[in-house]
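Thread title: Can someone regenerate the structure for this chain?

I was given the following input by a collaborator and told the matching structure tokens would be attached. They weren't. Posting the sequence so someone can regenerate them.
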Amino acid sequence: MGYHESWYHNQIMYCLDVETFVDSNGDGIGDFRGLTSRLDYLAGLGVTSLWLLPFFPTPNRDDGYDVTDFTTIDPRLGTLPDFVAFVVEARDRGIKVIMELVPNHTSIDHPWFRAASTDTTSPYHHYYVWRDDDPGDTSDQVVFPGYQTGIWTYVPEIKKWYLHFFYDFQADLNFANPAVREEFRRIMGLWLQLGVSGFRIDAAPFLIDVTGLEQSNRMEGRHDWLRELNDFAVSRIGNAILVGEVNVALSKLADYFGGGNELEALFNFPLSRDLFLGLALERSDPVAFGLSQLPTIPDSGAWVNFLRKHDELNLSQLPAVEQEMIYRAFGPKPEMKLYDRGIRRRLAPMLGNVDRIRAAYSLLFSLPGSPVIFYGDEIGMGDNLSLDQRLSVRTPMQWTGGRSAGFSTAKEADLVRPLANDPAFEHGTVNVAAQHSNSNSLLNWLAHLIRTRKECPEVGVRPGTVLKTGNEAVFGITYPTASGKLVLLTNLSGKKQQVTIRKQDFDFTQLALLLCPTDDLRPTASGRLTLPGYGYFWARSLSA
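Best answer:
Regenerated them for you:
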């Protein structure tokens, strides 16, 4: 059987925000020169692609997602030459750059909106979505419950209402307007020319939502808009990718791949929820069930799997009883919850135990697709729940135990954002420098896991088969290889568990051990194996 394989099927993606990663000039704000200085660290970890959160000029009312200019760098973060130098250095280390694109909305301070909201005859007026009549109560349609009152805001100067599915300072663009789509082709062309390898499309489903548009403005087959963007990117760079933030019902998920000509990859929101349900219950069946429910995707398509990232852990599409199970395990206090749908904590505080964190990563890396690591999670960074909304997990990177966590030479009071403040995870204890010198650290273990995952490219492109392990606490999956099989087992329980793998599923008589907690962890000839609490076992069968 042949398999379509592109670089994005087996990427090790690392997500970071430039302003909170490294500060090179002591002003308390991370920048591209600082990020460039840490590329050797990222290459040493094994990262193959960097997903950069927004770095455009912005009033910064929504951590950079309120953009005022899509064609340059926020001056706080550096210059365009700094960015180009960073991309070149990353490429030299085999690291591709995927940048955040925010095509759904702009800041109301963007010149487009300023023109649109003062002159209805301006061509920019039609860059946005307007209505003349009072929309009434739209509080049931907001994206951020508790922080928005509706999705329309009135502009008295022109006596019209503009649409904003997100905050009222982020006006929705009208993608039904060909001029808007042309603007984004130009924007994408610029950044592709400067060396990026693709884009993470923020809020992709909202691009094709037609709420508020007149029927005459609606475009037949609205997924055509994503195909337009994809066709353009691929025409400029043949292996460019669009990665979609698409958190929709399972029945609609595959639509965003199209026939392999829309989004090349999707963040796997359904499986992320199932992973946390499995971790909360210490049972493998939610994960197995979640895998079985994923839609069939094109051969060229790929899943991007994650545990945590920069937003809340979104549980909105789980039944209430399952949501409550996850809240009880990982977000029991009110300040840990957000938007009536999720948890705003980092991975380490949620799981608490370093062995459990390792098990979670073993599980993540064993699943079909490519894994994402959120900056700082490789060292078990904590969060700061005193910060507003999603900012709790977006604190400065902890490089050392010294002043300002080695993020900046500035005083802590002058940093772009306060440091993580949980005493169990403060930077004096949890930092890169300390873990570099500790062979048993989470950082060094994760680097080993990444090296192992790179030796198993079948995981990214071949269909896996969930194993019947005979133990509900142990998740197992196999993948066919050129000369045998891979078997990847993870114990989600804190107690030791015994499993028995049938010989027809995996031949233990001829195997190469890839990853396990101890060197003496070996199965019997009959396939019986005892995994320690939160243990894992990765092996390759050498038999045909």
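Residues 225 and 276 are 33 Å apart (CA to CA).
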